[in-house]
């Protein structure tokens, strides 16, 4: 019976065949221990000389790293294994012998590993990160479907910036200028006016020449937009969503978190509600902590966000930023027009901002005024203004950066390991 490593628990004391690659091996006299992987997981195959043909035993001792093969054996419980099972091998069939596999069990430098990213993904740590990433995506769809959202796909090629910045990748769209999307948000607002609650999940591109451990050139965003929802209701949705995702990873990725040596006690605290401080309170807090390099009206840098996060054991919302440093579409606070009804969600443990969101301007006259202030009067933005002209309603939305969220939940240091093939300032290969 052919199966996968992930499904061996269904076949205890049965003989199965699994297509695998040899991850590692060791032998001791009359027994060989094969560390096997098939993409769904890792399992140890035990080859006893007395249980297989002489040819099969010799073959098992001479297998090379990443050789592909079919392994047949009996599934037995093993409490010492992270999986809880091992395979007592009775036969094996080599599919293709790998020769001189470049990534050996010894230590390799980061640049070498990045040059061999297509192979590095096979390692236990990288496999675990990708499985956690997948669980975050799966639980995202589950959460928003449960909450009555409709998945909508905004375009990747756009005629203008979503936030009025110049950090865009330019291309020609036949005889017009076009840009790779830095956010699907404007289009998602249009979708919310048609479908009520919507979310998108797709790639975004920022031509920001940054080399920090928190930045990628190409990354994936989850962007919900919600009609008839104000700022406070949006914050509640955000914290419920983040808590749901974290708890799903804790429940469904136990083996992966153990492989990554993640301190799950930190993640178990992630339950709504989350603490909140205003931007003004955050500035005062930082000054009290000895940060003399920041004043009201400045944006936060990584050290500032880390200091704020370290004062809390959950993600923390920083709300009511100055209008002048936020995007043109954010609604001013009716009680203080100098600040916007917006919030950044800062992850614990120094992982920085993972969500940015706001209530959007829904008044036609105010949005038209913002267009003039930001010189957005061109035809590329005309359709967006019309959303405030035909049945405008209060509405809010936010964007969660998938890779920063993966980095935080897995506890890894650098964001480049959170995406299968990272695009960095000086890296377009492989």
Automatic annotation (TrEMBL):
It holds the Pfam family tRNA-synt_2. One of its GO terms (molecular function) is ATP binding. It is found in: Cytoplasm. The keyword Ligase applies. One of its GO terms (biological process) is asparaginyl-tRNA aminoacylation. It catalyses: tRNA(Asn) + L-asparagine + ATP = L-asparaginyl-tRNA(Asn) + AMP + diphosphate + H(+). Residues 130-430 form the Aminoacyl-transfer RNA synthetases class-II family profile domain. Its EC number is 6.1.1.22. CDD domains: AsnRS_cyto_like_N, AsxRS_core. It is an enzyme of class 6 (ligase). PROSITE patterns: AA_TRNA_LIGASE_II. Keywords: Aminoacyl-tRNA synthetase, ATP-binding, Cytoplasm, Ligase, Nucleotide-binding, Protein biosynthesis. GO terms for cellular component: cytoplasm. Its main location: cytoplasm. Homodimer. Belongs to the class-II aminoacyl-tRNA synthetase family. HAMAP family: Asn_tRNA_synth. This is Asparagine--tRNA ligase. It comes from Alkalibacillus haloalkaliphilus.
């Amino acid at each position: 019976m052919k199966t996968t490593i992930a499904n061996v628990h269904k076949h205890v004391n049965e003989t199965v065949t699994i297509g695998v690659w040899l991850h590692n091996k060791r032998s001791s006299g009359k027994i060989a221990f094969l560390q096997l992987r098939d993409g769904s997981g890792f399992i140890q195959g035990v080859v006893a000389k007395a249980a297989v043909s002489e040819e099969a035993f010799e073959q098992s001792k001479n297998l090379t790293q990443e050789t592909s093969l079919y392994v047949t054996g009996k599934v037995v419980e093993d409490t010492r294994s992270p999986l809880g099972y091992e395979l007592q091998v009775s036969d094996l069939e080599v599919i293709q012998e790998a020769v001189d596999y470049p990534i050996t069990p010894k230590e390799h430098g980061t640049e070498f590993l990045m040059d061999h990213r297509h192979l590095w993904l096979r390692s236990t740590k990288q496999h675990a990160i990708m499985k956690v990433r997948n669980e975050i995506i799966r639980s995202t769809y589950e959460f928003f479907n449960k909450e009555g959202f409709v998945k909508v796909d905004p375009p990747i090629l756009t005629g203008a910036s979503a936030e009025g910045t110049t950090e865009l990748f330019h291309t020609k769209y036949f005889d017009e200028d076009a840009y790779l999307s830095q956010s699907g948000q404007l289009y998602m607002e249009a979708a919310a006016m048609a479908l009520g609650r919507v979310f998108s999940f797709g790639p975004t591109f920022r031509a920001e020449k940054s080399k920090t451990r928190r930045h990628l050139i190409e990354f994936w965003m989850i962007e919900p937009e919600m009609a008839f929802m104000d700022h406070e209701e949006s914050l509640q949705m955000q914290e419920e969503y983040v808590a749901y995702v974290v708890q799903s990873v804790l429940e469904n990725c136990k083996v992966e978190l153990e492989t990554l040596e993640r301190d799950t006690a930190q993640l178990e605290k992630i339950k709504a509600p989350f603490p909140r401080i205003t931007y003004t309170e955050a500035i005062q807090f930082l000054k009290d902590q000895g940060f003399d390099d920041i004043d009201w009206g400045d944006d936060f840098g990584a050290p500032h966000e880390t200091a704020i996060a370290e004062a809390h054991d959950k993600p923390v919302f920083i709300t009511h930023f100055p209008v002048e440093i936020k995007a043109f579409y954010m609604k001013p606070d009716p009680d203080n027009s100098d600040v916007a009804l917006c919030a950044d969600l800062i992850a614990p443990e120094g992982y920085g901002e993972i969500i940015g969101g706001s209530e959007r301007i829904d008044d036609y006259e105010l949005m038209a005024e913002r267009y003039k202030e930001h010189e957005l009067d061109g035809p590329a933005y005309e359709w967006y203004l019309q959303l405030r002209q035909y049945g405008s309603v209060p509405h809010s939305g936010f964007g969660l950066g998938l890779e920063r969220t993966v980095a935080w939940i897995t506890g890894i240091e650098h964001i480049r390991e959170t995406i299968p093939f990272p695009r960095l300032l000086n890296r377009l290969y492989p």
